[in-house]
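# nightly structure sweep
# worker-07 picked up a monomer target from the shared queue
# config: single-sequence mode, recycle default, output format = structure tokens
# input follows
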Amino acid sequence: MPHVQGRIVTAGRAVGAGILAFAVLVAPRARAEDGYELWLRYRPISDAEVLARYRASISEVVFEASSPMLEAAREELRRGLRGLLDAEIPFVREATREGALVVWSSRPSTLAVSPSLRAQLRWAGAEGFVIRSEPIRGRPAMVIAANTNAGVLYGVFRFLRLLQTHESLQDLSIVEAPRVELRVLNHWDNLDRTVERGYAGFSLWDWHKLPDYLYPRYTDYARANASIGVNGTVLTNVNANATVLTPEYVRKVAALADVFRRWGIRVYLTARFSAPIEIGGLETADPLVPEVATWWKDKAAEIYRVIPDFGGFLVKANSEGQPGPQDYGRSHAEGANMLADAVAPHGGVVMWRAFVYSNEEPEDRAKQAWNEFTPLDGSFRSNVLIQVKNGPIDFQPREPFHPLFGAMPQTPLMMEFQITQEYLGQATHLAFLAPLYEEVLRADTYARGEGSLVSEVIDGTLHDYPRTGMAGVANTGTDRNWCGSVMACANWYAFGRLAWDPDLGSATIADEWLRMTFTSDPNFVEPVKTMMLASREAGVDYRTPLGLHHLMARGHHWGPGPWVSGGPRADWTSVYYHRADAEGIGFDRTRTGSDAVGQYFLPLPERWGRLETVPEKYLLWFHHVPWDHRMASGRTLWEELLHRYQRGVDAVRQMQRTWRSVDGMIDPERHEQVRAFLAIQEKEARWWRDACVLYFQTFSKRPIPDGYEPPAHTLEEYMAIQERPVPGL
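# output follows
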């Protein structure tokens, strides 16, 4: 991952189960940029003044490494300093001059530090760190200090970020600790290496070659995650395959765990609820049958013998055809608790997904998770976390926050965000998701009065949860740039940063990522940051404005399909959600409709349940609104709908202009890829706009006003477009 001109770099070593793996990357001088190095490029700082200042501030490094994790941190620091400062900074046993950088862990070190530093370390806890200006033996120095090896690792990456983003090293006093305990990527990867909703090639995990061959990319994946504070990875799809729990595959998983461990990352697996039948030879998977519980306890013990720090299980049950406890008349709590009892003796957890809906057609699918889980509050084991999607439907471009947040004070709820862009254009559309994450995390649940934010549910402070977590559905794959496009990597970065600190702002995250990934030149950073921050809203506008949702074509979720109807379930169609007719459009979720609004805490039902006070971004989510309803702009609903669709297309065109304006400021290879993808996005934004407007016009019977860009084709032509091959189905 690091690009060091003319050198061979050892990216790390993992030892375990007789396996020795080296990650060796050769970066020749003339090599084009392809995005592989992500935000860890460590190129020499181009600003001569900043470079001189940093070189003067860091004369030597004292770093005692007594464990594999500390060795990884030391080599990362050596690599980062060598690359950024374009110089060899000596690593010594003892500070001998001014400007020493001392890396210190309270466990292995006996170095004397000040009482104030020790006080800061108490606040930092198990995974936090302190970076501060601190005299060592009477000489000015800087210290990276932590209570644990993991804290040292995170502190090293934070220090390197200071240099990458050109921050001052004077009078440092940084104390950081993660607000969320479990910061986990969910890989929807199948054992045949296909990836559900993955748009960056095949799965990173080459099961055929494991455990005997470990790709260097595994180490680079772990490094990238450690750099943003991710400490767990679920290797397999939530639509689970029981085969991964067999001894053969557990050994393969153990080989990956050996690589990841030195980077502070635990592995988790998805547990197929019917595994006792499929690979265990039992006749039932009923969680209350003793033989079933015993089978899972034995399976957990078998896994922990091979992977002592195995994290636990993620479970999707009784949703979209997946088996679960309801198949036997049992509750989610009874199913989750059986698995929790199996992993509890080993310190494991169960992450039980709340993305459920019945096989029967619901009154309103948005209500089902709340209906099923709130009656169970307080009945789950202490090592169970309920994993809840950010919104009540399914990762739509915009949804109100999920009503479960705040509604289960006795049961830890963890957030599930989607990093891969299933409904936002997949890898070829620019959609920076930090604003979406931020919008949800800063939403007020009113669970304990005003100011009861979703972020406070997630970090445990609102309800004093004993365990906390945040999960992100990963967007990585075998594409050289990891995520299918260079810009999509910003969403991986954003997830990690917000899992560490849910109060970070989108602009801060975008600024960091751009400086680390491309350049710190403000002539590049400022316009591109503005472009990124506007990109998600543009995607909402040309797909699902004003609270519309679930308008995609059947199956692939890529192109428009507001006309989709029929099939096995009404709630798998678009017409179920938009409910357009001659009178108006939108799903009535007020008290006179499905009353989904009633699942939220006051005053939200009153605010969102009235046309006069509902935010326009949620208008058609909660209301069926007449076509001639007058909007805040003075336009009718029909005119406003057209305005939003056109605004989305225009925003993409502005992104194209912005990107053209920075040509020559970065490498031509990555610039060209983004340019080409923005052209695809503009074409497909017009497709979405035209198809949706023409379809909804069949109900509104209103004209398309003069000055509005006319559709390029007829509605019949758009409806005749057949499903194209799309990766990640």
